[in-house]
Amino acid sequence: MSEKKHILIVEDEIKIASLIQKYLVLHEYISSHVSNGIEALNSVKNCMPDLIILDVMLPHLDGLEVCKKLREMTDVPIIFLSARIEEVDHLIGFEAGADDYVTKPFRPLELMARVKAILNRRNHKKVENVLSAGAVTLNVDTHSVYVKGRLIKLTLNEFNLLRAFLEYPNKVYSRQELLTASHGKYSENYERTIDSHIKNLRKKLTVDTLIPSQIESIYGVGYKFSSNLSH
Ligand code: CA
């Protein structure tokens, strides 16, 4: 079962904050509440929530400023709560980096639907951006590669090669296809450079001599990345 998501509410009107909290709890979320922008930034620094519901009109530091500052440190989803009078500010709100907005007065169920939609979108994105096979895990967003949990450094060409392999484990790639994947273009003159990239990639991926290389040479064709470690 998936663990409960933590939603931070930033709202100076206690009645509204309590109403949102009540609905969040009903929908199986964990929620916390702060009533101004400074507290919001501190709270996020201490404990990163999964989503933030951010009122635009706040004392001291307004929601737009808070949103901009948050975006300097995180891409956590943000939903603006905006009073009707602020409607003209919606565009500015999105420029500040929010993911969505709800206009006051709002229906709590509408807000819950938005929260759910954004969190689902995030989940799918996360799954798509992490590729793994056997001992190797590659994160497209952070451009990092782990072998058995150990971070390894790859050149851009090696990273692109590995990404192609992990997108279709066990697929036999020709050198031509691998060259296009790693360099973005194909040139006959460079076909053999793939062999040296593969050699380096193999070496880097074999951080533990007990792990056999997952990259296999297929005679007369090219290479494949085996998803199975025992061969
Ligand atoms: Ca307010």
Structure, described:
The chain is of the alpha/beta class. It folds into two domains: 6-123, Rossmann fold, CATH 3.40.50; 130-225, Arc Repressor Mutant, subunit A (Orthogonal Bundle), CATH 1.10.10. It has eight helices and twelve strands. The protein has helices spanning 14-26, 37-46, 63-71, 90-95, 108-128, 156-167, 175-183, 193-205; strands at residues 6-10, 30-34, 51-55, 78-83, 100-104, 130-133, 136-139, 144-147, 150-152, 172-174, 215-218, 222-225. Strand 8 and strand 9 form a beta hairpin. Helix 1 packs across helix 5 (108-128). The longest helix has 21 residues, at 108-128. It is elongated, with a radius of gyration of 24 Å. The protein binds calcium ion. The site of calcium ion has 5 residues, from loops.
